[in-house]
Amino acid sequence: MSEEVKEEALENKSCCGGETDSGCGCHHDQDVDVADLTDEEEMDLLEEMARLNDQLLRNQAELENFKKRMNDERIKDNKYRSQSLATAILPALDTFERAMAVETENEEVKNFLTGFEMVHKQFIESLASEGIEAIDAEGQPFDPNFHQAVMQEVAEGVEAGIVLAQMQKGYTLKDRVIRPAMVKVSQ
């Protein structure tokens, strides 16, 4: 064993960090000559060094894993940050769309509806910029991941399992369904 390794082992061997009055039983006040170490003491020192080195590597790996988990969590939180806002806004958007569906012959009301349509378009564009999009349901095969069947109906010329009508729009936020579309499905 090299003299440097022995000296380093002796420095690291101290169980109390070099404190002489800690009552640890170490002989800090005695000079230790590296050449006086027995083979057994050398092996003990090497084993202790290996154990401490192993613990250091494990702690470093644990810290890196913790950093990765925190980073992944931060990315996920950032990705879906708009979900609670969208969930709160969607009922108001439904009401807004029902108001726009009103048909009238009154020119003043038609002017208001035109303004509502412009505001609605901006609203939809703002939601889309956050990754919130309506689920396309009508005419699509029923998918329980995106649709919630509230009615079934026999329809001539339509195969079973096709969405006939949409009762309430569904929405996704990026790759997550935040509200399934409520639909009527063919039998």
Report what the structure shows.
By secondary structure, the protein is α+β, with helices and mostly antiparallel strands. It contains four helices and six strands; from the N terminus they run H-H-H-H-E-E-E-E-E-E. It has a three-stranded antiparallel β-sheet. A three-stranded mixed β-sheet has the order 2-6-3, with no helix packed on it. A hairpin with a 2-residue loop joins strand 4 (171-173) and strand 5 (176-179). Helix 1 packs across helix 2 and helix 3 packs antiparallel against helix 4 (107-129). The relative contact order is 0.09. The mean pLDDT is 84.
Q: How much helix is in the residues?
A: 40-55%
Residues in β-strands, percent: 15-25%
Poorly predicted parts: none
- Rg for CA atoms: 35 Å
Average predicted local confidence, pLDDT: 84
Largest sheet: 3 strands, antiparallel
What is the strand tally?
6
Task: Give the helix/strand class.
Answer: alpha+beta
Number of helices: 4
Run of helices and strands: HHHHEEEEEE
Shape: elongated
Distance between the termini: 83 Å
Adjacency order of strands in the biggest sheet? 1-4-5
Key descriptive features of the protein:
187 residues, alpha+beta, three-stranded antiparallel beta sheet, three-stranded mixed beta sheet, 4 helices, 50% helix
Question: SSE layout and pairings?
Answer:
Layout lengths: L2 H11 L25 H41 L3 H18 L6 H23 L2 E3 L12 E7 L9 E6 L2 E3 L2 E4 L1 E6 L1
Parallel strand pairs: 2-6
Antiparallel strand pairs: 1-4, 3-6, 4-5
Helix pairs in contact: 1-2, 3-4
